[in-house]
Amino acid sequence: MSALSTVVVVTWRGRDHITACLDALAAQKSPHRTIVVDNASDDGTAALISGHEVVRLPRNRGYAGGLAAVLGMIDTPYVAWLNDDAVPDPSWLSELENALEAEPDAAAATSSILLTDGSTQSVGVALTAAGYGKDVVLAGREVFGFCGGAALLRTSVLRAVGGVPADFFCYYEDTDTAWRLRLAGHRVISVGPARVRHRHGASTRPGSPLFHRWNERNRLLMLFRCAPILVALREFARFLVITALLPVRRSVPDAANFRIGLRLRVIGEVLLRTPVTLVQRLVIGARSKITRGVVWRDWAGR
């Protein structure tokens, strides 16, 4: 039986958890190809993955960059994104494949991602009224977007909508992709029986300055690429105003994303990328079958 899917596992210094991920993939009921993208790990990860098909990058290009680096190598109808600290159930891949086979207008299927204590981390991604992507723990069959830590996409559709935004490095590559899938007229579905256990934060540290920098920067870039222009400008203006008022506020949250230096860096990176981002916006718009306004109206704040 030929494989329907290629599972891409991107790792960076994954020595402590990648073996469990790859062992779980070896136990999948559905035949598949696995590609491990090693982001120049220097902790002994290379020795642990040497028996697998490995693409070793010369430098750390992040999760988004790692996915983008091997998209051209994939020759199966489906491509799965899987975090190196996720452990899928044996039926995980087959559940996702069966769901997409049954619903040809769906271009992506997201998993039930459970934390190590058994609680639910995500069954899909919602779009907030401020344009953030937010994990949801209770959803119907259809969701706005998928969680990139464990999802299956149609390879040809992913390529047709522009692939993976490699420059995002980490975070929001999934929500940006979901935006582009929806603009092209495709659906995203949640597949409850497709379960994985996730050691959340094993590869990155949620709450760290880098975490907040990537989140804030990539949300704004995503909005300028995909959302109605007035929404993108509103959210960028809001970010600027909050930053400007921080020195005079009596009470400032004790979080990295309220540090002026980090916020100024985000502003600078967004402005530096503005010319390229606007070109990308035009290309995305030219590919779209549904207007940005309709997608925003139907999904923002739900």
Key attributes of the depicted protein:
302 residues; alpha/beta; Spore Coat Polysaccharide Biosynthesis Protein SpsA, Chain A; 9-stranded mixed β-sheet; two-stranded antiparallel ribbon; globular; Glycosyl transferase; transferase; glycosyltransferase
Please, could you describe this protein's structure?
This protein has 302 residues and is of the alpha/beta class. The chain has two domains: 5-198, Spore Coat Polysaccharide Biosynthesis Protein SpsA, Chain A; 209-299, no CATH class. The protein is 40% helix and 21% strand. It is built from eleven helices and eleven strands. It has helices at residues 18-26, 45-48, 62-70, 92-102, 155-160, 173-183, 209-226, 229-245, 260-272, 274-287, 292-299; strands at residues 5-11, 32-38, 54-56, 78-83, 86-88, 106-115, 120-122, 125-127, 133-135, 150-154, 187-198. The strands form two sheets. Strands 1, 2, 3, 4, 5, 6, 7, 10 and 11 form a nine-stranded mixed beta sheet that branches. Strands 8-9 form a two-stranded antiparallel sheet. Helix 1 (18-26) links the parallel strand 1 and strand 2 (32-38). Helix 7 runs antiparallel to helix 8. It is globular, with a radius of gyration of 19 Å. The termini are far apart. Keywords: Glycosyltransferase, Transferase. Pathway: Cell wall biogenesis; cell wall polysaccharide biosynthesis. Residues 6-161 form the Glycosyltransferase 2-like domain.
